[in-house]
Amino acid sequence: MLERQDYEEFRKAVRRLAETKIQPHAADVDEKKRFPEEALAAFKELQLIALPFDESIGGQSGDVLAQCICLEEIARVCATSSLTLMVIWAGLGPIASFGSPQLIEEVMEPAINGNTVASICLTEIHGGSDVWGARTRAQYKDGQWVLNGQKRYITNASRSDWYSVLARTGENSFGVFAVHKSDPGLSFGKLESKMGVRGSPTADVIFEECRVDDYRLLGDSKEGRQYITDSLAYTRPLIGAQALGIAQGALDAAIKYVKEREVFGQQVARFQMIRGTIGDLATEIEASRQLLYRSCEAVENKEPEARTLASMAKLFCSNVAMKVATESVQLHGGAGYLTDFPVERMMRDAKITQIYEGTSEIQKLIVAKAMLSD
């Protein structure tokens, strides 16, 4: 792992980028429900899309903690932009790890240069949290894989170039496939109208006799379950980082507001009840940060409790994000209910962190199972 100073220097660089190139567009992205193209362009400046990938394929070999710091700082100003980057990483990850040399050359080089948007396709209409209830099927015919099925609530849908798709290859086996947006048989459902992260396009991805060449199979056609299980242990801290960033951004905005606002002839920040609330929220954010960073260490070192800690971090950070964002709206008084102030957007954005990548209820079950096992 890097030295502490290196992480702090990286944090400062991402924060400068986020505040100068991403934050000015955050409200407009939310209001117009448009893809954050400015953020995508900003990612290129620090080669952020390359961050998690191995140097052997042109990446930066950034560890999980570096990735979390990156997402935390971006989410602090724009949750949609942090989600965009995170899902690009998630979509490209299986390709980088298990793709054939031909596929890695075809996909990863332009991706590393920041010119590729990607998605990961897991959730289905009938499955929800039950990933392994997937009904999308892949059959091998005449040297190609033929995919049929429908994936639900896919982030970056309609904007992505590549899709990593989980599909059933047998009664109890799964494979993961790289599908390009131009492949025949790939189409999209309607764009969903969402409560938060509204600049991130979400839609069904539909496969109807969608044929992909054999080299687009990632790794072993029967090991997809293991690939995705490993991936979720890695991505859950990233959701925690996004939630933490939203919480920090909301508290920062609330502190700024109560220091500027005057009521009954004095600064709102001087009222004891306001100070008590600020103290509680700041403490919970810091507790979230420490748990999150501990989970990063466990995932990076492949510790036995990594999966449990990742679920704890995702659960705790997302709950804190929802609490802090809601309280920050309250600290703004009537102004917090207006779209003129970012806390209104942050409260809406925070809610999804308790739902996607495994609901809070699923995380509790994972943690409880670990605690109760012999």
Give a structural overview.
InterPro entries: Acyl-CoA_DH_CS, Acyl-CoA_Oxase/DH_mid-dom, Acyl-CoA_Oxase/DH_mid-dom_sf, AcylCo_DH-like_C, AcylCo_DH/oxidase_C, AcylCoA_DH/ox_N, AcylCoA_DH/ox_N_sf, AcylCoA_DH/oxidase_NM_dom_sf. The chain has helices spanning 4-32, 37-45, 64-75, 79-98, 101-112, 224-260, 272-300, 306-331, 342-352, 360-372; strands spanning 118-121, 137-141, 144-155, 162-168, 174-180, 186-188, 202-213, 217-218, 262-263, 266-267. The model has no long low-confidence stretch (mean pLDDT 95). Helix 4 (79-98) runs antiparallel to helix 6 (224-260) and helix 8 packs antiparallel against helix 10 (360-372). The chain folds into 3 domains: 4-112, Butyryl-Coa Dehydrogenase, subunit A, domain 1; 118-222, Butyryl-CoA Dehydrogenase, subunit A, domain 2, CATH 2.40.110.10; 225-372, Butyryl-CoA Dehydrogenase, subunit A, domain 3 (Up-down Bundle), CATH 1.20.140. The longest helix is centred in the middle third of the chain and has 37 residues, at 224-260. The protein has 374 residues and is of the alpha+beta class. The protein is built from 10 helices and 10 strands.
